[in-house]
Amino acid sequence: MRVSPCAEYAFKSQYPGDRPENSIAEAAYGIPDWIKDKALGYLDEPLRGVYDRWETYIKNN
């Protein structure tokens, strides 16, 4: 599906977390615990389980 440049710009403006420079900042500085806790509170149990298993995997490898 082809997306118009205007729609692409609107999406990027609405969802800045999807931009590469934000991923780099996260890797360099981390995410404050209060933001992480708030975001994780929105996940349902199955998805939270996926997150928890990923965190365990990352810490052990």
Proportion of residues in β-strands: under 5%
* Percent helix range: over 70%
* Number of separate structural domains: 2
User: What overall geometry do the principal axes of the alpha carbons give?
Assistant: globular
Elements, N to C (H/E): HHHH
Mean pLDDT: 77
* Beta-strand segment tally: 0
Low-confidence stretches: none
Count of runs of 4 or more consecutive helical residues = 4
| Strand-pairing-aware structural class | mainly alpha
* Sheet with most strands: none
In angstroms, what is the radius of gyration?
15 Å
Q: Could you give the distance between the termini?
A: 38 Å
Would you mind describing this structure in some detail?
The chain is mainly α and 61 residues long. It folds into two domains: 1-30, no CATH class; 31-61. 72% of the residues lie in helices and 0% in strands. The chain contains four helices and no strands. The protein has helices at 5-14, 20-29, 33-40, 45-60. The longest helix has 16 residues, at 45-60. It is globular and about 30 Å long. The N and C termini lie far apart (38 Å). The model has no long low-confidence stretch (mean pLDDT 77).
